[in-house]
Amino acid sequence: MRLDKYLANMGQGTRSQVKRLIAKGAVSINGKVAKSAKQQIDQLNDVVVLEGHRIDYRPFIYLMMNKAAGYISSTEKGETPTVLDCVPAEYRHYELFPVGRLDKDTTGLLLITNDGQLAHRLLAPRHHVAKTYRVACALPLSDRQVEHLANGVLIAGGYQTKPAEVHQIADYQIDLTIYEGKYHQVKQMLAAVGNRVVALERIAFAGLVLDKNLQRGQVRLLSTDELTALTNKK
């Protein structure tokens, strides 16, 4: 890979900007000052330093977001703010997208990445990836309603939801884990048992657990352990 392309891909500026930095002698490769923007480098083995800072090669990035209400899970710019508007500038040179969708009024865990292969694997229905939601209900839930949710209920289109895990937190609150992703599924499931969702927060996805230290709208890089568990998931 050309040196200028490498630096631009790693968010160090436009191709023109990094060419000027190289011309000024601000870039070294394996301890030697780079002479040309056209110089070819081995992005996996060469050590590239810009103005005293090592620039490691990172083709993919994985961010945990605590989504705030009012944002849509989209990459398209429009009148409504998107979750990508919350991503810090230092990561925006990557072609990021949310893995799956949370409704505009839903909060909580959202994975942001540029790894299309991983996203496809996590979203493929055959993999039955777990998604856990903390659900605040309009009415108290009876034991019978909880049982119906766990066994599966009939929603739009005559679809019978697959068995789910339901843990009652309080009379008006449950943690609901589902292994599929039908349109507005949690809201439809609660409606099917005669209730209504008042607030919805995703607290876990594909083995990731929402970081309680993340404020609404904040993001952070996945830890090494989180990333290893996620990428090893079948």
Structure characterization notes:
By secondary structure, the chain is of the alpha+beta class. The protein folds into 3 domains: 3-54, Structural Genomics Hypothetical 15.5 Kd Protein In mrcA-pckA Intergenic Region, Chain A; 62-124 and 211-231, Alpha-Beta Plaits, CATH 3.30.70.580; 130-205, Alpha-L RNA-binding motif (Alpha-Beta Plaits). Helix content is 21%, strand content 26%. Strands 5, 6, 7, 8, 11, 12, 13, 14 and 15 form a 9-stranded mixed sheet that branches. It has a 4-stranded antiparallel sheet with strand order 2-1-3-4, with no helix packed on it. β6 and β7 form a beta hairpin. The two termini are 32 Å apart. 26% of the residues are buried. The mean pLDDT is 94.
Topology:
Layout: H1 3-9, H2 15-23, E1 27-29, E2 32-33, E3 48-50, E4 53-54, E5 62-67, E6 97-98, E7 107-113, H3 116-123, E8 131-137, H4 143-151, E9 154-155, E10 159-160, E11 165-170, E12 173-178, H5 185-192, E13 197-205, E14 208-209, E15 219-221, H6 224-231
Helix pairs in contact: 1-2
CATH topology of the largest domain: Alpha-Beta Plaits
Shape: elongated
What would you give as the CATH superfamily of the largest domain? Answer: Pseudouridine synthase I, catalytic domain, N-terminal subdomain
Please mark out the parts with pLDDT under 50 across 5 or more consecutive residues, or reply none.
none
What radius of gyration results from the CA coordinates?
22 Å
First-residue to last-residue Cα separation = 32 Å
Q: How would you state the average pLDDT, rounded?
A: 94
- Note the run of SSEs as H and E: HHEEEEEEEHEHEEEEHEEEH
How helical, in percent, are the residues?
10-25%
Query: How many individual domains?
Result: 3
Quickly name the level 1 CATH class of the largest domain: Alpha Beta
- Please outline the major beta sheet: 9 strands, mixed
Total helical segments: 6
CATH architecture of the largest domain: 2-Layer Sandwich
Indicate the structural class. alpha+beta
How many E-type strands? 15
How much β-strand is present in the residues? 25-35%
